[in-house]
Amino acid sequence: MPAHELEIIVPVYNEQDSLFRLRSELDMFIAGCKIPVGVLFVDDGSTDKSLELIRGICVESINYTYISLSENMGLSAAIKAGIDHADSKWIGYIDADLQTSPADFELLFPFINEYELVIGFRHQRKDKFVKRVSSRIANSFRRRVLDDGVRDTGCPLKIIKTDIARNIPFFKGMHRFIPALVQVLGGNVREVPVRHFPRLEGKSKYHLSNRIIHPFLDTLAVYWIKKRIINYHLSEEHKKTD
Q1: Alpha-carbon distance values, 139 to 97, 149, 174, 184, 209 (Å)
Q2: Percent of the chain having pLDDT more than 90?
Q3: Residues 153, 177: contact at Cβ < 8 Å?
Q4: 6-228 topology per CATH
């Protein structure tokens, strides 16, 4: 039996300055949560002291575990590694930069039994102007092409049923399309408004090419998957019995 009902994946790449504050907020959330929660750090080949700090956190508390990738593979690979190693009924996801709060997982809880994926919607973004505009353009293009009905697919606050998560087709950049890919697998998605905060520590890993150019190309790839994937449902079945 899994030790936790919810395991929160936290991908980390060079976030040494935010980890102490992140650990404090996660501790408060775990202490007040009504279900057993664990945290799985996924170090994505950090070159600063992030992995050293993660090791210390995991030694100090049984609520924390970690895996470390041998080199920097990108956010989608880190999320996939976390999903592959999580052992829980539900998998949570949050970024290490604390632009969303662990406390807001509580806002998603009322819907996790009814929906395969519950995702936050950052209704008051605190990002810089260029990041907000590029995100708005990419989201608009994605919605028009994929018709997934999701306003903020990139919100780094999600809870997904583990059996669905393990069947998502993974590729570089897929983290932007988790709602659409869940829908491809026949899952239902619910968006919930959550808070958003400015980044206080560290530096954003995003730039124009991975917020505009790559998402456009990846959207077309997901459109192809959506049209070509095989999903079937039986109408009848007869099995021989001894």
Answers
A1: 21, 10, 14, 18, 15
A2: 56
A3: yes
A4: Spore Coat Polysaccharide Biosynthesis Protein SpsA; Chain A (3.90.550)
Question: CA distances (Å), 226 to each of 84, 148, 186, 219, 233, in order?
Answer: 23, 11, 11, 10, 17
DSSP element (H, E) containing 225:
helix 214-228
Q: Half-sphere exposure of 232 toward its Cβ, with a 13 Å CA cutoff?
A: 4
Per DSSP, the three-state class of 221 is helix
pTM: 0.83
Given a cut of 90, is residue 115 above it in pLDDT? yes
Question: What mean pLDDT comes out for the span 137-154?
Answer: 75
Query: Nearest to residue 149, comparing CAs of 172, 125, 183?
Result: 183
The tokens describing 195, both together, are: 């808070």
DSSP 102: G
Contact 18, 47 (CB under 8 A): no
Of how many residues is the chain composed?
242
